[in-house]
Design brief:
Elements lengths: L3 E13 L12 E13 L16 H16 L2 E5 L4 H7 L8 E4 L5 H12 L7 E11 L2 E6 L5
Parallel strand pairs: 1-3, 3-4
Antiparallel strand pairs: 1-2, 2-5, 5-6
Length: about 150
Amino acid sequence: MKKIRITKEFKFEMAHALHGHDGLCKHIHGHSYKLFVTVIGSPISDIYSPKYGMLIDFSDLKRIVKDEIVDKLDHALMVNSLTSQKDIEGALTGVLPLRIVSVPYQTTCENMVVDFADRIKPELPKGVSLHSIKLHETATSYAEWFASDNE
């Protein structure tokens, strides 16, 4: 059976700061992220399946991405784990409540797409593979991850 791709778009708001960066991005700042997740596979051919003709139900893909990424990061501050709690508190004095997500990497768009791919891949059903991820940090700047580049 022929392979097809489907894509679902997600949006979330998140702040981050680039630890040790030599420009303005070292300061806490936020983005309205747009995340495009594309999966590939063959549509279900079992005529008795309630998902007949679908590669994956869009609602199932939505649940996976929301559970693994959007619900964890929306309206959060993502920081590299090298960033000290003292630095965070100093920058955000008087700002409460605070939702901080610490990750073991520099919080660039490039590193986030790799992390997101690693979160999504194991959650996909048999026969469905992650094809690509595109993460827009701004309207004109984005990073992409392709499975074919990472085999």
